[in-house]
């Protein structure tokens, strides 16, 4: 590993990451800012993509192809589905899917298109490191499925559909698209989220209240993972 990408979707998700580094060099590209830092002898590029699968794919591909990152880590917030996940709690994705990808009219399963697969798995090595870090720091972290779609989910109906169709533990709007990009380009990746809301009625209120504190939870854990990774 020579160069690490760390991305979020929103500014609030990368601010607490950037706070850990000095001497940040900003590179502007494709209507976005990429923050380059050197940390303990390793090059790191940090960026927030903007919300949704398209922007997230652009940023992930840019970090890999233009900035030549060979490991990609995502840190941010998500809506919780698994009742064990309370606001502020951490989940690492073992696999991700696109809950809004739908050509079921042709007999395909939800989340599937020809040439792809319903689920994309994250790097087992990165997950193992994350779990070791959680153990050492006595952090309670759930490993599970994250479902991604271009919609803020704030109804029990949609949440139940995602739960029953994909057995997902949490949902958000970027992870699975980043997974497809990294998997296609053979770059090991990892998605970490802290819960900001429970994706049902009132999710928008909880999200506004807990975005910052949950984003900090995710970022602080992510920095510890990076420390272990480059150790
Ligand atoms: N308040 C923001 C919009 C936030 S969209 C604005 O007005 O600009 C929600 C973001 O947090 C997305 O990046 C998504 O990945 C994540 N997220 C958290 N809870 C979510 C939920 N219930 N449904 C979908 N995405 C969620």
TrEMBL record:
Q: What is its EC number?
A: 3.2.2.9
Q: Which residues form the Nucleoside phosphorylase domain?
A: 3-227
Any idea which GO molecular function terms this record carries? adenosylhomocysteine nucleosidase activity
Name the enzyme's class: hydrolase
Which residues constitute the signal peptide according to the record? none
Q: Tell me the domain of life.
A: Bacteria
| Pathway, per record | Amino-acid biosynthesis; L-methionine biosynthesis via salvage pathway; S-methyl-5-thio-alpha-D-ribose 1-phosphate from S-methyl-5'-thioadenosine (hydrolase route): step 1/2
| Keywords noted in UniProt | Amino-acid biosynthesis, Glycosidase, Hydrolase, Methionine biosynthesis
Its name, as the record gives it, is: adenosylhomocysteine nucleosidase
| Species for this entry | Arcobacter roscoffensis
């Amino acid at each position: 590993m020579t160069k690490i990408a760390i991305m979020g979707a929103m500014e609030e998700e990368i601010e607490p990451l950037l706070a850990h580094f000095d001497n940040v060099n900003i590179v502007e590209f494709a209507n976005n800012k990429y923050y380059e830092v050197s940390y303990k002898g390793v090059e790191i590029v940090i960026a927030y993509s903007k919300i949704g699968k398209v922007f997230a794919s652009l940023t992930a591909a840019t970090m890999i192809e233009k900035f030549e990152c060979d490991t990609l880590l995502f840190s941010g917030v998500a809506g919780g589905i698994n009742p064990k996940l309370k606001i502020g709690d951490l989940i690492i994705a073992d696999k991700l899917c696109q809950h809004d990808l739908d050509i079921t009219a042709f007999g395909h399963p939800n989340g599937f298109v020809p040439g792809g697969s319903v689920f994309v798995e994250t790097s087992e090595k990165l997950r193992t490191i994350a779990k070791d870090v959680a153990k050492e720091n006595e952090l309670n972290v759930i490993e599970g499925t994250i479902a991604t779609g271009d919609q803020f989910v704030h109804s029990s109906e949609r949440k139940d559909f995602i739960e029953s169709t994909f057995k997902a533990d949490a949902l958000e709007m970027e992870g699975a698209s980043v997974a497809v990009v990294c998997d296609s380009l053979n770059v090991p990746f990892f998605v970490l989220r802290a819960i900001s809301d429970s994706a049902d009625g009132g999710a928008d209120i909880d999200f506004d209240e807990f975005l910052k504190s949950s984003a900090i939870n995710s970022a602080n854990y992510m920095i510890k993972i990076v420390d272990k990774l480059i150790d």
